[in-house]
Design brief:
Blueprint (H helix, E strand, L loop, with lengths): L6 E6 L14 H15 L4 E6 L7 H6 L4 H25 L4 E5 L8 E2 L2 H9 L3 E5 L9 H11 L4 E6 L4 E2 L11 E2 L1 E2 L1 H7 L6 H9 L4 E5 L5 H6 L6 E3 L1
Parallel strand pairs: 1-2, 1-6, 2-5, 3-4, 3-5, 6-10, 9-11
Antiparallel strand pairs: 7-8, 10-11
Helix pairs in contact: 1-3, 5-7
């Protein structure tokens, strides 16, 4: 099977871990994700993962409810650790080794993140799950995943979402929205498309990290992307 990429950074949203639920973690969805991730690990692909925390707590919406923004963002970082532990547990349950790394010192929950630790783990065939975003307030987990993708020298950043790519408008709200097969970072910016926040997009652009936005909730899609099938939208 043709492999287009040797090392990837997979960004998963916290919301997608809710599955059919309104809140928290759906074990069925976590299990499906783990199965898909193991499938590509078995192909010999080195995998780094960053997960959001929106299924548990969002710092930004917390700030609108009266939480201090810095504390709210720190609560969001802790939410990403809970999700990372859940995913690592689901991976280990099916025989795929995983390691949780945290941007903030959190021994014994996870190892303190460094580029070298993450790369060493991946080279050993472990999935490196990198939590706490950037470890700083005012940055999203999108920016965290762009930063980690660049640091671990990933060939591509895969953004697993609920929709099957980038559209001219929100396809869930606008039935006339059409999908892009590929699009440049600049066009995302000029069209004002909500793919990732600006900081993340700029980081990817300046460091030539391509992005593939695809539907992760359809089982089997991750392997299709890794096999070079033209699903999702390629951002360059």
């Amino acid at each position: 099977m043709e492999r287009k990429f040797k090392r990837i950074l997979l960004k998963l949203s916290g919301e997608s871990l809710m599955g059919e639920q309104q809140y928290g973690i759906d074990p069925k969805r976590a299990g499906e994700y783990a199965q898909q991730i193991k499938e590509i690990a078995d192909m010999g692909i080195e995998i780094g993962i960053v997960i959001g925390g929106g299924n548990i707590f969002r710092g930004l919406s917390g700030a609108t409810k009266g939480f201090d923004r810095v504390k709210g963002d720190q609560m969001g970082m802790l939410a990403t650790v809970i999700n990372s532990l859940a995913l690592s547990s689901a991976l280990e349950a099916i025989g795929q080794k995983a390691r949780v790394l945290t941007a903030i010192d959190m021994h014994p929950i996870g190892e303190h993140y460094s580029k070298w630790r993450a790369i060493e783990a991946m080279k050993r065939g472990e999935v490196a799950i990198i939590s706490c975003g950037t470890g700083n307030p005012f940055f999203t987990t999108d920016t965290g995943s762009a930063l980690r993708g660049i640091e671990i020298e990933a060939d591509v950043m895969l953004k697993g979402t609920r929709v099957d790519g980038i559209y001219t408008a929100d396809p869930e709200k606008d039935p006339t929205a059409t999908k892009f097969d590929s699009i440049s970072y600049d066009e995302i910016y000029t069209r004002g498309l909500k793919v990732m926040d600006l900081t993340a997009t700029t980081l990817c652009k300046e460091n030539n990290l391509p992005i593939i936005v695809f539907d992760m909730d359809t089982v089997g899609n991750l392997k299709k992307v890794m096999s070079g099938e033209p699903i999702g939208t390629y951002v360059y």
